[in-house]
Design a protein that fits this description.
The chain is an all-alpha fold and 80 residues long. The chain is built from 5 helices and no strands.
Length: 80
C-alpha cells in the first residue's frame, strides 16, 4: 500500500550495464562523446596511463572538461 502512494514520485528508468572491456581505447576515442570520455577516465590508473591515451588535440573541446584538472593535464602536456 505504501509503495502505491509513492508511485507518482518514483522515477521510471532502467540501467543498462556496459562492459568497459568490450571497447578498446581506440573505439572509445573514435566515439568522441561524453560517455566514452567517462569510460576512458574509468580506465585510468595513473598519469602514465593518461599519457598513453594519445588523445587527439580537440578531443576535450565541448565536453566541459577544458577547465578541469583532466583538461589542464592535456593542455599543459605533462612532462614525460
Amino acid at each position: 500500500m505504501v509503495d502505491k502512494a509513492f508511485e507518482p514520485f518514483t522515477p521510471k528508468f532502467f540501467y543498462k550495464l556496459i562492459q568497459l572491456n568490450d571497447y578498446s581505447v581506440k573505439e572509445l576515442v573514435e566515439k568522441n562523446d561524453e560517455l566514452s570520455l567517462l569510460m576512458l577516465i574509468n580506465r585510468l590508473q595513473s598519469t602514465e596511463a593518461f599519457r598513453e591515451l594519445n588523445l587527439p588535440e580537440n578531443y576535450l573541446k565541448n565536453k566541459g572538461v577544458e577547465d578541469s584538472v583532466f583538461g589542464m593535464m592535456r593542455i599543459k602536456r605533462l612532462p614525460a
